[in-house]
Structures are given as structure tokens and as C-alpha cells.
What does this fold into?
Amino acid sequence: MMGQEEYPRFISNRPCGNDKYEGKSQERLAKAIAKHFKDTDSKDSKICLPRIVGLEGIWGSGKSNVIRLLEKELEGEYYFFEYDAWGHQEDLQRRSFLELLTSQLITDEILSGDTIVKIKGGGTKRVSWNEKLKYLLARKTETITEKYPRISNGMAAAFLVAILTPIFTFIAYAIKPAEITWWSVLLSILISALPVIVALAIWFNAYRKDKNKYNLSYLLAIYKDKIENDICYETLSEDEPTVTEFKTWMQDISNFIEANDKKKIVVIFDNMDRLPADKVKELWSSIHTFFSEDGFPNIWTIIPFDEKHLACAFGDGEDAKIKQLTSYFINKTFPIVYRVAQPVITDFRKIFNLFFQEAFGDSYEDVEKDTINRIYRLLHPNANVREIISFINEIVTLKSVWDEDITFMNKQIAQFYVSVTHIGAKDVLTKDPVNQILSGDYLSDISKIIKNDILLQRQMSALVYGIDIEHARQIPLTKYIESCIAADKDYDINEYSESNKQFDTVLDEVIRNVDDTAIDNSVNCLYNLKRTNNTINRIWNYLSNKKIESKLQEQKIEDVYKKILLKAEKEIHQKIVDHIYRELQNFKDFSGSNYFKALDDLNNFIEENGLDVSIKYREKVLPSEMFIDYVTAAEEKYIEYKVKTSPEELDNYFTGLLPNKLDNINVLKILNKSDYYSFDKLYNSIEELIANDEITEENFANIYSAYKILSKGIPLAKQLNTSKVQSIISALSNKISNDSYPIGYSDIVAMSIALGRDVPNYDSDIVTEVAENIEYYTTHGELLENCINWNISLLNEVLRYMVINKIGKQLTITPILQNFEQIKSRINVTEDDLLTHLSKWSISDNEITKDNIKTIISTVSFWGYSAVIKNDLTAYLNTTVLQALSEISETTLYNNKNNYNTDYWYIVIKHLISTEYMAVLPENIDILGKHIMKDVASGSQSLPLPEIYQNIIDKLDNHNTKATIKDIKNSFCNGTAIMNKSKFLFFKDWFKSQGDMAIERAGSVADKIIKPIINDTECLNKILLDMNFYIQIINKGEDESNDLRKIVETMVVKSEDIHLIDFAKKIGIKKKE
It folds into this structure.
């Protein structure tokens, strides 16, 4: 319909000169400024303030609109000129200002007619304002150049015809025949006229193409062009007008206005606070100089500015000193500063609704407008009019694009529009649309008002991807899942798995549509999904079947297979394992080592995760070289996976590597343990090489390593001769670097010292390796025997290591025991180390017996070791030596008793008597002990006894010593033996336990045994401690005890000892007072 407004429509953001604020604050401000202008202009200029005004307000607060309102207020009286300082920042500001101002004043006929201008050399000249502008500001010089015409093409052709015609006439005459005929005459005429004919033909052809240009006048014209004047201008300078020139010029304008009663001028320097800092300072200085000081009577200046942004020109806008400096400049420049007020919230709402209605008319209900208004204010609490207009125009743009698709009503529309036009939302949506649409994070502060439901997600998807709403339904989730599958950074498959109801359906659809090359990525992605249900299980089964259809890219168990086995249903597990095993067995580029690693990995994975599947191994026969690669990786586990090769082929393969290419020694070591593989050919070939002296420094290490593995016993049957050993050890020694030894060096060193050859300048680090290999070249026993005489330092260290670490296989104990002390000392080990080491070997029958043990172990100190070191060997030796000891006659032992410190058998007794081996004394030792006791009684053996005698007596069996004790008692009672203190203390316990002291010859005991020692304090104390025993003897002795009583009676008189008094009383003695 004609005349009807069409909506939506864009709103102009240019100042309209209308105050849309409810309080009309801008109108009031404009009227105040207009009044100030008029009042000032009505007064004498000499007493007025400078005609410059500051208009302060933040960006977008309406400063430009105030100026438009001011222009309306002063319409007809003042002429407004706006200079965009920001737009002309690349120009020379003074020059640019004067040119624009003057040009516009001339155009609008404020300046018209003539004016006066000063000329060089003095004087003045009357010119028009246009000429004055050109004269003063352009600074140009004028040069006039005349261009003369060129000769025309027709004249040039005529000139050529005139020259060529005589030439062709001469040619015609020269070729004329002697007999003149009509055709010869015609030919002469044609030749003579040929230049004219050609020229006319060319002209006629041109004439047919362009009859206007190539007419007859063209043919007859002498010149091609007219004479022309070319005027050139040369700029002599582009300098800024000087201060004087600028002031003079502005004063001329002011004077002209006054003289001709023209409108007064209002100059607005707009966007000055948007300039770079240096430009701001430069322009500010000019304004202050030209307008703030004296000014011009008919010219007003208005400077709109934002103090906060202006402060940035002087440094950090937040710094207090900078703020103070800015205020100083403002106060210094402007006598008056008007400030544009911020709109209050009621104004904000009203302005927003006015603009919204202007853009959309009445097509939206109040609830919709209010929702958008409220959300926008929440997001932009400090928005200005310019920002509101920009926002609403964005909504107009969206509405014009999506009007047909976005048909839902009320709050949903508001949600959509505000979400899309939210500045922060636009940024994050552009960078990460999928995550932002699904999460709704882009809504930020308005998430409490706008719900990120499926409907809003569809709208945002449609907007971002430029598709209709229906097709956008699953776009965000689809793309999110695709990003998860692609393993893009910061994408988690669990993010929307529970919150989005379409998740399972979309996931199924996405995975079923992925390319086969992305199946692995799909598995990896789905593995991280915590959610599980029937749909997810079906997806796992789908992926499992897809993987079963694929080939292994590498001969290994890919992680995706493991993940499938952990997640897929049990029914498909065996199918997957069978597929993997089949692929591994039939892999195109088969590798033995990779085959083992893959199978072992699979087997371990099944066991560790308790999967109810099994690998159905089938025998795999490999070529020898490939089999060796397999065993290298599998080592002792090679037999588990039914992989084998031909034993004969394998033996031949290794043999074929001799003498210089033999390797894979560890494989040989492993396979040699099997009964299935034998290497007789290789073994015989090695022995043949040794016998033929074909061992070199290059092949020595590997050949002898193989020989040691295959040897049926040690030492090796074939040994290198001494010269060959020395030759190889010399060559290998030269290859030692930084304590790193060449392969085989320890073996050749072992051979050398086995032959009794020293190895100088060796490093102790090699001792271990030599010790572990030396028995391939000699026996351990021979080394121990020979070390005494050889005294090879490396050998001694090797033997010490072997003894301490119990290394050694062949040894005969007897010669070692015979040289026990020397060997122990030579290799610097303890007796415990050596005896413990030797106990590994058993003693053969009749090797060490009671008959030869003294000969074998001649060093008697050995028995001190065997007494305390407990093992099978010392037990045998101790038992054997005691057997030998028990056969020594008691007479021999008794006769040698005074040599107890040196006699072999006495020293054996000394070391062993306190051990369990002599828990019961041999009979001959028992008899020796009784003899010693009799010698003590008789006095032939002094007291105290030597330790060995005391130990023997302490070990006597009480069951067969009573007769001896009674004999000794009787010897004292008969007077053949005399009692003294030491004897009493020695025998008292024996007498009490076995002497029948109170039963037989009690009187003699009292008289001959007790009486002689009763006066000794120590003996008396012993008697008093056991007084009942001795009281019984004394009282049984009756009269024979009287002499003893008298002695006691005498002792009692002088004693206060209650025990002695009691003792005396009980043997019939009363203390006399």
C-alpha cells in the first residue's frame, strides 16, 4: 500500500537535533549555550570572555546532538562550521582548516565579493575571495606552453607521390620498346601513374571505413592539429600558514562578517579526543593560541571532548598526575565548560523503546520489547545512544535475513536476537561455535533470563552455519561429536552425553557415517564415554565388526583392539581375538620378533583383564633366520606360542656362520636347553677350528661363547695354546678404552691366569666376569692350590670373589685343607668365608678319615675355626678328629699332659671340648680327668688348674666318678693326702655330692678334712653357708670331732658372728661369757 511505512528499517546514527531524553536535558543545555553566545555578542568584546566553549561528555553521550540542538536555537543568526579533526589528521591542520572553512563560507555565500590581499614588494591588491584563497594558501606558479600542429597524413602522401612520379616515369621510358604500339603506350602511362594510383587506393580503403574522418578535406589538409596552449602549475611550497598568517586570515573573515553584516560563525572542532597523542597536543596548542587568548569578535569555537580519553594524550589516563594535568589544560583553554549529563535509567528505557519502535514499528508486543530492553541493559549498563542504535540496527539486519524462519513469538524472539547481537557472544560463537551453542556459555550474564534450550540451540546453529532451522536441529551436537572423534583439543565426549536427549541417536548416526579411516578415532573417542546403554553397545558391536573387516597395518596389537575387547559384548570377543591372531600369523611383512611381542601382549592383556577367550595357537614353522629373530624377542618363552624351525636347518645355519659371522649367542644358549634342537655339527666345527689354530682376535669372543654353551662339561675339552692366548690378549688389550672392555676380553684373561700368566694393569671391574668364566679353562681347586706359588694378584682377587660369592664347580677338599692357612691368607678371606665355601663340596669315601686327619689338617689352629663355624664340612671334620682322639691311649694323653699348650690332641680338646661334639667325653679323656683329680689331691697337680684340665673335669660324667671321689676322700682320711684351703675349695662340692661324708668315716672327715681349714675365713664361710651338712658330719664323728670343737670354741669366744655361734651351738659348744 502506498505511503505505508515498511519495517524493519535501519536507524540513522547521525545527530538528529531532537532531545529524546525524558528530562530534556540536552535541550536545556543547548539553550544555555545559545543564551551565553547571544549575551556575550551583545556586550563589548573588550569586557567579554573569550568566544570558546568546551562541551564535555563521554563518547556517545550526545555531544553532537547538543550541537545540532544549538544550531536550531541559533538558526538564522549564526553559521555553523564543523571541522572533523580526526578525519583530517593526515593533513596539515591549520592549512586544512583554513581551506575548508573559507571554501565552505564562499560556497554558502558568507564570504562574497572582493577583499584585500598584501602582495610581495609591498602594497595591496583587491581580489576575489577565491583568488585570495588560491593566492595565500596554494603557493603555486603557472607556466603556459604552446603546442604546434603536425603535418597531416594527406600532405605527407602527396609529398611522396610528387617525388615518386618522376622516378616511375623514367622507368616507363627506359623500358619502352623500339616499336611503339598501343599497349606499350598504355603500359608507360600506367607505370608513370602508379604512385598516384596506390595513394588513391589507400585513401579510398580508409574512406570506406570512416567517411567522416577520411573525407576529401582530410586528403587536402595541410596540418593535422590546431595550435594549443598547455598551462602547467607547479607547487612551490606546502608549509603550514604561520601564526601571524592564520590570525590575519581569521581576522579578515571576522572583519568581513562585521562589515557586511553577515552571520556570526560557530566553529566546532569535532573528534579531537580521538586523535593520536601528538596530534592532540599540536591541535590543542593551535586552538589555545588562536581562539582562547584574544579570539575573534565574530567567530565562536566549540570543542566537544571526553576528558578521560583526552587524558590519554598526556600519558596514563588513570594516573592522578595526568588527570590533574588534563584538568589544568582544559581550565586554561576554556573559560566555560558545559557537561552533557548521563541519561538516567528511565531515560535509558524510554530511548531504547523509541529507537526500537522507529526500527520495527508496532509489530512487537510490549513484553518482547521490554525483554530485549531489559537484557540489553543487563549486558550494557553504561551504554550510550550510539551503542543502542548500533545494537538495534544489528537486530534489523538479523530480522531482514531470518524473518521467514524465525517465526516463534514473544520471549523466544527476544532471546534469539539478544543472544546473537551480544558483542561478547559474537566473538566466542565465531571462535568456537559448537561448544558455545551446546553449553550456552556465550550467554554469560543473561543466562538467568535466556534459557539455552533445544530451540535456542537450533536458532544459533542456523545463524552460525547459514542454514534453515530444520537442518540446524542436530548440527551443534553432530559437529561436537565429530570434533571429539577427531580428537580436537578441549573436546570431551562426556560433556553432553547426559544432558542432551539426542546424544545417543546423534552419536550412532555420526559413527555410522564416518569414513573407514576414522574407525580407530571413533573407538578411541567412544572408549572415553562413561555412558552405557543398549544403543552404545550396538555402536561398539558395529565398530568391532568394522575392525574385523580391516587389515592390521602393523604386526602388533593396536590399542583400539584392546579397547574394543574391553567395551564390546562378550559374544564378539572370541571373534575379535581370532581375527587378530589370523592377521598376525599371515602378516605380509612377517617379523619373528614382532610376532612374539604381539602375541605376548595379547595373551597378557587377556589374562590381566580376565577375558573369557583363548588364543587358538597353531604351529608356525619359520625359516631359521626368522626363527632366531623370534627367539631373540621371546627368550625362554619361545616355546609357548608353538613356533619352531627345522633343527637340522638351524644347526646348519649357525655352522654356516663360522668362523667370523657367528652371532645370536643368547639364542643359542636358550635353544641348547631344548631336547628338540641339537648343535652337534656346530660343536664339532668349533673344536676343529680350535685344533687347527683358526681362532683369531676377531672371532674368538663369539666362538668361545658358543663353545661354552655347547660344551658337555668343564673345563672345555679344547684349549688354546699359550702363545695364541698371549697373542689374543695383547690384541684385545689395545682395544680397551675408558674402562670399556672388548667382547671376550674376560675369557682371554681367564685363560691367561689359568695358565699361570699374570695380567698387568688390569681393572678390578673385570674380576667378576673373569670369576664367572675361569672354570671353563681350569678347575677351581687347581686355582686354589696354585695361587700359593703363583701369587698372581688378579688370580687372588678372582678367587676371593669366587669364595665370597660361592662360585666354583670342581674342587678336591683334601689339598685345600692341607694348605688352608696359606690359601686363606693369599686370597685374603676369613676362615668362615673359606670353610663355608668348601662346605659346598662333599668328601669322598676314605678321603679324610680318623687315620689321616692329623696329617691332612696338620695346622692345629684349624680346629679353632671348625669349633665355631658350623656347616656340613666342619661337622664331618670335628667328628672325624674326635674319633681319632678317642683312640689315643689315656697313658699317652697323661704322659703329655704337661704339654697341653703344644700337644696336637690337647689343642683339639681345647677347641672342641665346649662344643656339642664333646658333650660326652671320650672314655680316654674321662680317665684323664680322674687322674688329674687324684693328682690334685696328692699335690702333684697344683691349683688352680689350667683351663683345659678344668674343662675336662667339668665335663666328667657324675655317674662314674663316685668311686674316684671316695678314693680321694679316703686318701685325706688316711693321711696320705694333706688338706689345705685350695684343695678344700676344689673338692667340697664333689665330696658333698659323691663322698658319703656323713655316712662313712665321719670322724676322720671332721678331723682330717674340716679341721685343717676351719681357721681359714673363706673356708669357714663356705662351711657356715652349708652348716647343716657339716654339723651332721661333726656330730656323727663323735669324739673324733672334739679337736675340731675345741678350735670352734676358741673361735666363738672372740666372735660375734651369730652364724658361727649358731654353728658352734649345734655341734655342742656353748659360748662362754
